[in-house]
Task: structure prediction
Amino acid sequence: MSVLIVVEHRAGVLHANVRAVLAAALKLDLQPVILIIGHGIQAAAEQAASLPGVQKVLAADHACYEHYFPENVSKLICEYAREFEHILMAATTWGKSVLPRVAAILDVAQISEVTCIIDHHTVEHQIYAGNAIEKVRVLDEIKLFSLRTTSFTAVIGQQSPCEIEAVNIEFDQTKTKFISEVPLESTRPGLDQAQIVVSGGRGLQSVEKFVLIEQLADRLGAAVGASRAAVDAGFVSYEHQVGQTGYVVAPELYIAIGISGAVQHLAGMKDSKIIVAINNDPDAEIFKVATYGLVGDLFEILEQWISLDKEI
Amino acid sequence: MEKPVVKLMVHGALGGNTMRALVTAKRVLDPYVNLHVKSDGSGVDLTHAKMTMNPFDEVALEAAICLREQGALNEVVVLSIGSLLCQETLRYALALGADRALHVSTNDVYDCLSIAKIIQHITLIEKPELVLMGKQSSDGDNNQTSQMLAGLLDWPQLTCAYALNITSSHLAGKRDTEYGTETLQVCLPAVISVDLRCNTPRYATLPNIMKARQKPLLMMELSSLCLNLTQHHQVINVRQPAARNPVVQVDSLSELLSRLKNEVQGLL
Result:
């Protein structure tokens, strides 16, 4: 019995979070197997084969998996599931679409957004927007965990490539149709991978003033985040939302500017290593989770910071 | 015990040409009140706590009502599973605009897979064209019951969706991913889970709260459904997250930056 990791990839590149999932897998078993699914996946499969500790890569390369639909991907995973004790995926949009469906077909539980693996049966995850941590013991023989990858330290290094075994099982699905995708266009680091995040809230007041957040982010080489209030107000688009319903981030440094600190926002950032809160309201909830707090006129502070020389 | 089920099937049988949505309404701790973890670690204290409809389900209900107002649906049926108090949540859903309500009554707490099996059972009786659910509940945050239901039914799924549009036998919607915004189209029947950005739910007006009292609410005991529900996991304990150190207030940007410089070397 071993661990199966279902990995995510796009345009021939494995998602960087694979190394965090692998770190979790290696806690359970020293010879995890990777399953990679898609169309035209040779390059990504080769990257997977070189990840340290991976015993074997199963590669399902077929046009029917081009759009990674949960409807047929879940059936393919189930073909292999019974050979494994654990199936792991990153808790990304795709992982969260697929793994519960696999669980239902296998008639087993799935534990969402696992933050800590205690032993083969026991894990922790957050509930109530991160306000409580639940420790659960899974009773099923096959255990399915989606992982909050920011909680695991990525495995580093390479190995000489392991075997890549082609999987020739097709599951056509005709009930879901891909219509279009509008890709994100940004030269800044993505929220899920940035070491620094600069986030703005309703305190920024307008689209025009929110540009200051973007300028500071560019100054620091950071990703741009936002509270739901700022997104709802139209200051910035949804892909920047940090919180219970947006991205969950845990960067080295999180700078929250003009964000009051609603529970839903805290759920998405309170595990950041250092949190800086800048707000004109000294009683803002955000200060309760902040490492450093600065009360003052946020526009003045922003303009001052942006105009500083590169060296601080 | 059998009587309610028979009545339910009569409702279902009416639906030859009915475009029906089944919407879930979980009763949860109000996400805007402070939460208390019980000192014995057995869970979150819900005694005397303010409860409400899961805000994500409220968005699903609003989406269903809007689709009915557009003429894309004829009937919105709302379902809640849990104690008798769920009927309060269902009355609220009826006041918002659901046509009728179903209450599966149980005092036990079930995991997502068992809940998905109960919804599957009701789905097979009610035969909706779509099941609309919040993408997660604000208590468990699991984001899995709708996917599980779709897997059990072998129906297509569209999760974390918004901008829903029904055209005859299809539903199209958008969803945001780490890579951009996808537009997908699913054949009906399908399971749809909605993101908060889908819409802003309306408030119940007083006249509608009064009218909701007259709308049909059917209760059935979970035991009468004869489902074989097994426990898949045990909660060992629930604890509060470790508190962060108290905030250090700084007086100026330069003080902030000199402190940061010491802590995040090389990053800034």
